[in-house]
Design brief:
about 325 residues, alpha/beta, Rossmann fold, Luciferase, domain 3, GMP Synthetase, Chain A, domain 3, nine-stranded mixed beta sheet, 19 strands, binds zinc ion
């Protein structure tokens, strides 16, 4: 609650309103703790909960006249791209805080364009006790919750600590926890400690924005395809709300990508547009040219029928092609 109280004080001021699009029904859930932290700032919070229907969530945010939104990247994107969300226009939502493992830049940029707001990101997970680190006004890396958590970046293979500035896997150790203490807990997230002091003047160390996850990458021939590369291309498509990618590996060493797309209801959106955008991803273009990747297949989910990944981490799913296994 202390962390939420102080972290949110860079986003909102006394008398403002925050719509919290995170689970908040139960006592001590993330939404509940956030609302209680905000109350200390005399900031009102609407515990809306996760977004199941983007249009209704956007209407709730608009009628509440929220100054700030807190939510999961793909869900807040869906709110911004809904009819009521776009109608909110610029100037009323001043800031958005996106929370989970990592935030595609393309989503943050879209929100800045639609609402004219500043987009902050938060880093944390259940294991960190929710809050882990949050960006300040410099918007350049998360200030870590160092009073309770000791963060290190280690070599993914050897587990040896990396020097500050070097990219590796984020691990953390709990310093004050009595139940379920963790020592060098491996998050699977890829980042680095920023060695330079922050322009905001805080002495809390900063961790760079998470670049992806070790399980968010797959080897295709001589290239590595990462989910974050695909995110940065696909989320620029204005009719796209979310997607899921499956890689099927065939016996002959070739692979195929299957991309399931969730689009804005009623928008016409072609397979060709998606394929053209996928072709902008270096690893995909190279692998198709090398012959180790077949042309991707694209499927559109019927409007309104998409189960969001919610708070779980997004990843690339790899399967062995059942046809070639026979
Ligand atoms: Zn700072």
């Amino acid at each position: 609650m202390d962390f939420f109280h102080h972290g949110m004080s860079t986003l909102v001021r006394t008398g403002q309103r925050v719509a919290v699009l995170l689970p908040g029904e139960r006592p001590d859930s993330v939404g509940d703790l956030l609302a209680r932290g905000l109350r200390r700032l005399d900031v009102d919070a609407l515990a809306y909960g996760p977004v199941a229907d983007a249009e209704s969530a956007a209407l709730a945010v608009a009628s509440y006249r929220a100054h700030c939104l807190v939510g999961i990247p793909t869900q807040v994107l869906a709110v911004a791209r809904s009819r009521a969300g776009t109608a909110i226009g610029k100037g009323s939502i001043e800031s958005v805080l996106l929370s989970t493992d990592y935030v595609p830049r393309a989503i943050a940029k879209t929100l800045e364009e639609v609402w004219g707001c500043r987009v902050f990101t938060h880093y944390g997970m259940t294991e960190t006790g929710l809050g882990g680190g949050v960006e300040c006004e410099a918007l350049d890396g998360y200030h870590l919750r160092e009073g309770d958590l000791y963060f290190e970046v280690v070599d993914h293979e050897t587990g040896e600590a990396c020097p500050d500035g070097a990219v590796g896997e984020v691990v953390f150790t709990t310093l004050t926890r009595r139940g379920m203490p963790l020592i060098r807990y491996r998050t699977g997230d890829i980042s680095r400690i920023i060695p330079q002091p922050c322009p905001c003047g805080s002495r809390l160390r900063r961790m760079d924005r998470v670049r992806g996850r070790w399980d968010g990458a797959v080897r295709l021939g001589g290239c590595t395809l990462t989910l974050s590369d695909m995110d940065e291309s696909l989320f620029r498509l204005s009719s796209l709300l979310d997607y899921r990618v499956t890689v099927s590996k065939k016996g002959d060493g070739r692979s195929r990508l299957h991309v399931d797309v969730h689009k804005v209801e009623g928008e016409s959106f072609t397979e060709r547009q998606v394929l053209r955008t996928l072709n902008e991803v270096d690893a995909i273009r190279k692998c198709i040219a090398d012959g180790c990747l077949e042309m991707p297949t694209v499927r559109f989910s019927p409007d309104g029928r998409w189960t969001t990944t919610g708070v779980s981490k997004r990843k690339i799913v790899t399967i062995s092609d059942p046809v070639t296994l026979e």
